[in-house]
Amino acid sequence: MQGWFSPTRLVIACIALLAVLFTVGFATRDDMADKPYLRIAGGGFIFNYRLADNFYGFTAVVSRPLETGAIIEAAFEDPAGGPPLVVRERANTMTNRYALRSPPLKGIVAHRPYTVHVRVLDRAGRREIWSRDLQYASQIGGDGLPEQPLTVGPGYARNPQSAE
Question: pTM of this prediction?
Fold first, then answer.
């Protein structure tokens, strides 16, 4: 009976168990090469009638490690025409969630899809690592916004310049 519990057999059994666990872990692992660098968590148009402001944007979550200083770039289609509106943000170790939004817009047409070209660039901004196109459509047009902000200041006080 003592020969069955020998230290040699115990070591061999542990090695065999570790080999089986390693094989199962390797077979069920997530391959990072198959994941995109960013997962888009949501996005769309925002109309703030109190401030007479509208824009569109998205929230991206890093799903694959990025090098520190990598650049997340979004080129928003301009509803008023002209070149795309480009916004950039550097990736850092403090967060894995980034919100990019366009500058204030004019000329938004309801139900028309607008394209955002999202790219991840190396820290120098020369090499594209990943890209994806998104499309967002507004439920309402931009002509519904007032010309002047209805409110001013942090307390949303009535704007004295706005028409009554």
Answer: 0.75
